[in-house]
Amino acid sequence: MLARPDVADKVVHFTSGATHEEAYGRLRSIVSDCQLNASGDKIRGNHLCICFSEAPLNSLQHGLVNPSAYSRYSPFGVIFEKRWLFEKGGRPVIYQSDAEYAHLPEDLRWRHMRYEPGTIDFTWEREWRIQCDSLPFAPHETGIVVPTREWAHRLEADHDSEQNYEVLQYSQIMDELLAEQYPSVPMMDRTPELLNLEYR
After folding, report:
1. N or C: where does the chain have the smaller number of CB atoms within 10 Å of the terminal CB?
2. Half-sphere exposure of residue 188: CA atoms within 13 angstroms, side-chain side
3. What is the pTM of this model?
């Protein structure tokens, strides 16, 4: 397939939060749990879905923002192959007017996204969704997106610190040498991509 800069082969789930710290905390929780959890927020019919963007990373230096620099999301997230999400049931949303919502079959209404040209337009999000309660993933199936190199270093340092604390906890109930075998593998082995948007 001919490569085009406006077409992505990956999708990103961005975390939200009132501050970068809050959004970063959510990212750490996702990475630790290896799972995304669904929400019905801002989805008509309160269908439980997990949302993604297929916007190419090279257009996301400041995160997922519209032409007026507005965004509901932070520049922190996890990234997946689009094919992986499609095989699990993920699909692009259907941008249409609210009047057309009732024309959709019941089993497709979770894909509805309101679009009213000139007044309500979220097409810049290039949204995909998957309808589920939660979406587990293996570490090798994802990558991590952070806004800068500094955030990438912090994430790795926080992960290492968490691992050291786990060793300390295990050493309280078993031999320390054995306890060192229990923590998760290092961050970069868990997640093959640690991408910072600053350098895309």
Report:
1. N
2. 5
3. 0.80
Angle at 140 between CA 125 and CA 156, to 5 degrees: 80
List the Cα angle 79/147/63 in 5-degree steps: 70
Given a contact cutoff of 8 angstroms between Cβ atoms, the answer to whether 26 and 106 are in contact is: no
Q: Exposed/middle/buried for 167, CB within 10 Å: 0-12, 13-18, 19+?
A: middle
The β-bridge partners of 10 are: 81
- pLDDT for 83-122, tens place per residue? 999 999 999 999 999 999 999 999 999 999 999 999 999 8
> At which residue do the structure tokens 């519209």 appear?
66
Which amino acid is located at 148 in the chain? T
Tens digit of each residue's pLDDT (9 = 90 or more) over 27-61? 999 988 899 999 998 899 989 999 999 988 777 76
